[in-house]
């Protein structure tokens, strides 16, 4: 394995993740206009149940496959790595049948328990996706273990493209049949996407089949592990990761009751409390997922790279990956955090021009949550490191401790009228701070990694601060000018905000290179690295 694969893999997955997020936004906005509030109610009843079952089915196993394949490939046991894939494929095939069957045949009972019987067809339409996605996840995990992220990225984008196209077309076509059927058509988009994504990654698998067979023929001989032992290892790794993935969603569900009740107790009407909660979770919260996509890509790429180095006892290379991984996460996370903080209100007004009052009210919550992006980036990256070295229980424990802190802080602060919903945002950020601190201590203990604070934190932070100042000045200046030229304040804000964001990205990149926060050797590790080095050389002169 080469040092090139880690950053290249993260770059590929990051780009794919951003495309998927943009496509998701493209899907949600017209869908709401097509099927309206009632149809979205049916859709939103089915989709969270699907996501929960999908998380339980696939959150941990692909990571386990990735790590176990990387470990065996690192010492030449490519046939044993392939056996991990085959056994995990069978496991996820079985899980897919069970989970999709539960959702399909239990749809009637589930929607009645949820008090929304009109969502039955939407739930049945999305259920088959639970069969196809786990199979796809097994194949993705195998390629990730080989540190080849392209199959995952390609299949993810194809999956999302078909989800959006089929879901919207069916929603439009079935609207005349009734909103229950239109919502079911939108839900079937996930099934169509899963089928398309599975076909794509299986075609890729067959494309690589000759290369895989050659690797198998070169496999180091020796005793084979029993299938039962491999299966047990998969479960030992996967179950804690799955539990960890479920902790924050469960806590967020509990959060609903805490926040609404505490706001009501502090004097807000139930309608006002619901509105404030909607501003936090429906308007400000989703924006944090965009930078999260980039750092999640780093985490996914780190698992096999770290596992491979750890298995071969290449401690220096292991530490190199850990240190570079955290630095890359902060190089990406810091500008996202400070950018969202600087333009919190303009961004909210850009996205929700028709709900100006709510957008302005939600801006302080976005400001607070944006600060948490820094620590969320750290949590995700270091979780990948700990999973790679076989310490998957540690991040589960740490995020659980963080979640408890979140509940306590949220309970206290949301009950203070002057703080209200912002207390819930502070609680979320506190959870990330606690979990990231504990993860950092664990990584230093078990890997011996020593982080250069000047290179890892100070230089990216300096570049991000310079970027923020420039963005603030440019936005205020351009908005003041455009406000006198353009009658629409929303249009003036949109142009000023978009222009400031583009300028901010350019300024940040320029400052990073100018202060030597990124070396030419590291640029070379990225796709098209040679071209980037030539650009880098110009700034050195």
Q: How do the strands and helices of this protein lay out in sequence?
A:
Elements: H1 3-58, H2 61-74, H3 78-105, H4 107-113, H5 120-126, H6 129-145, H7 150-174, H8 179-207, H9 209-217, H10 227-265, H11 270-284, H12 289-311, H13 315-342, H14 344-351, H15 356-388, H16 393-414, H17 422-447, H18 453-485, H19 489-514, H20 520-524, H21 529-540
Helix pairs in contact: 1-3, 1-5, 1-6, 1-7, 1-8, 1-10, 1-12, 2-3, 2-6, 2-10, 2-12, 3-6, 3-10, 4-5, 5-8, 6-8, 7-8, 10-11, 10-16, 11-15, 12-13, 12-15, 13-15, 13-18, 14-15, 14-19, 15-17, 16-17, 18-19
Task: Give a brief rundown of this model.
This protein is mainly alpha-helical and 541 residues long.
Folded structure, characterized:
By secondary structure, the chain is mostly helical. It contains 21 helices and no strands. Helix 4 crosses helix 5. The longest helix is centred in the first third of the chain and has 56 residues, at 3-58. The mean pLDDT is 87.
Which key features would you list for this structure?
single chain, 541 residues, mainly alpha, 3 domains, 21 helices, 85% helix
Overall residue-averaged pLDDT value: 87
State the secondary-structure class.
Answer: mainly alpha
Proportion of residues in β-strands: under 5%
What is the string of SSEs from the N terminus onward?
HHHHHHHHHHHHHHHHHHHHH
Cα radius of gyration in angstroms: 24 Å
DSSP helix fraction: over 70%
Oligomer: single chain
Q: Separation of termini? A: 34 Å
Give the CA-based shape.
globular
Number of strands: 0
Tally of helical runs? 21
Low-confidence stretches: none
Total of domains: 3
Q: Mind summarizing the main beta sheet?
A: none
């Amino acid at each position: 394995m080469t040092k090139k694969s880690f950053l290249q893999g993260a770059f590929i997955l990051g780009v794919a993740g951003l495309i998927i997020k943009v496509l998701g936004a493209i899907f949600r906005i017209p869908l709401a206009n097509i099927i309206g509030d009632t149809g979205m109610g049916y859709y939103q009843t089915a989709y969270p149940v699907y996501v929960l079952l999908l998380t339980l089915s696939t959150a941990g196993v692909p990571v386990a496959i990735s790590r176990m394949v990387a470990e065996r490939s690192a010492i030449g046991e490519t046939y044993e790595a392939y056996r991990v894939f085959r056994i995990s494929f069978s496991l996820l095939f079985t899980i897919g049948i069970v989970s999709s069957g539960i959702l399909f045949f239990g749809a009637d009972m589930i929607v009645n328990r949820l008090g929304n019987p009109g969502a039955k067809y939407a739930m049945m339409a999305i259920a088959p996706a639970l069969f196809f996605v786990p199979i796809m996840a097994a194949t993705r995990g195998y390629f990730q273990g080989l540190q080849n992220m392209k199959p995952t990225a390609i299949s993810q984008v194809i999956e999302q493209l078909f989800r959006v196209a089929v879901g919207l077309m069916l929603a439009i076509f079935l609207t005349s049949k009734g909103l229950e059927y239109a919502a079911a058509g939108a839900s079937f988009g996930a099934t169509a996407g899963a089928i398309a994504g599975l076909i794509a990654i299986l075609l890729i698998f067959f494309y690589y089949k000759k290369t895989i067979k050659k690797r198998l023929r070169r496999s180091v001989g020796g005793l084979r592990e029993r299938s039962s032992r491999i299966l047990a290892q998969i479960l030992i790794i996967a179950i804690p990761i799955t539990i960890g993935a479920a902790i924050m969603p469960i806590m967020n569900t509990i959060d609903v009751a805490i926040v609404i009740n505490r706001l009501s107790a502090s004097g807000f009407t139930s309608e006002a409390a619901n509105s404030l909660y909607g501003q936090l979770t429906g308007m400000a919260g989703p924006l944090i997922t965009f930078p999260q996509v980039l750092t999640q890509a780093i985490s996914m790429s780190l698992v096999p790279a770290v596992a491979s180095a750890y298995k071969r006892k290449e401690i220096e290379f292991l530490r190199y990956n850990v240190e570079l991984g955290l630095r890359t996460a902060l190089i990406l996370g810091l500008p996202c955090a400070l950018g969202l903080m600087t333009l919190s209100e303009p961004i909210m007004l850009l996205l929700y021009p028709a709900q100006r009052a709510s957008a302005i009210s939600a801006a302080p919550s976005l400001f607070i949550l944006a600060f948490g992006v820094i620590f969320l980036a750290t949590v995700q990256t270091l979780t990948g490191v700990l999973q790679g070295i076989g310490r998957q229980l540690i991040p589960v424990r740490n995020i659980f401790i963080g979640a408890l802190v979140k509940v306590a802080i949220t309970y206290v602060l949301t009950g203070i009228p002057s703080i209200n919903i912002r207390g819930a945002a502070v609680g979320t950020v506190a959870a990330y701070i606690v979990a990231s601190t504990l993860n950092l201590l664990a990584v230093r203990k078990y890997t011996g990694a020593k982080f250069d604070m000047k290179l890892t934190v100070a230089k990216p932070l300096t570049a991000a601060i310079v970027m923020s100042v420039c963005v603030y000045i440019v936005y205020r200046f351009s908005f003041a000018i455009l406000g006198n030229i353009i009658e629409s304040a929303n249009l003036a804000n949109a142009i000023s905000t978009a222009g400031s964001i583009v300028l901010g990205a350019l300024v940040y990149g320029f400052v990073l290179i100018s202060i030597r926060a990124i070396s030419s050797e590291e640029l070379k590790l990225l796709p098209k690295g040679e071209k980037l080095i030539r650009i880098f050389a110009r700034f050195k002169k």
